[in-house]
Input
Amino acid sequence: MSYGDPNNPYGAPQGQPQQPGYGYPAAPPVQQSYGAAPMTTMPGKVNAARVMLWVIVALQVIGAGLFVFSAVAINKAKNDNSVPGLADYPVGVLWAFVVLALAWLVWAIVLATKFSSGGNNLRVTTLVFGILTAVLGVYPFLVVVGIFHIVLGILIACFVGGADGKAWFGRPRY
Output
């Protein structure tokens, strides 16, 4: 059978060809939305990371206060020669720890306050803060505060670095 045979069911269609412009108009293209709705509330893990930053702020206030108290007490003991063993402790190192604790405190406050409006740069900075906090918490590991810093630093890095943190800090802001 050839395509020229009018009785061939598999042949070329017979009749007049369809002309464009007749019949129903073509439908407009379908707009598909692949993204989720914009986030309006902070996910629980990201909010927990922000709360942990505030806990670190409180620990830094306590630590800076202890360093100041120790520096003043050692300096007074050196001047009075009341306790001869304290004369060997360097007071300048304690004041350096005070400055470091206050700098860490300010950094944690800035990060915690920017969580609701910050973008991906804040996320990366918070990851760095959490990792450095965990690493620096190893030094005073024998002290309970060091263990708290290690745990909080790891949790902050995990919560901000996870999928919820990526979605929150990468959300569109209109």
Observations:
- Residues 44-169 form one domain.
- The radius of gyration is 33 Å.
- The chain has five helices and no strands.
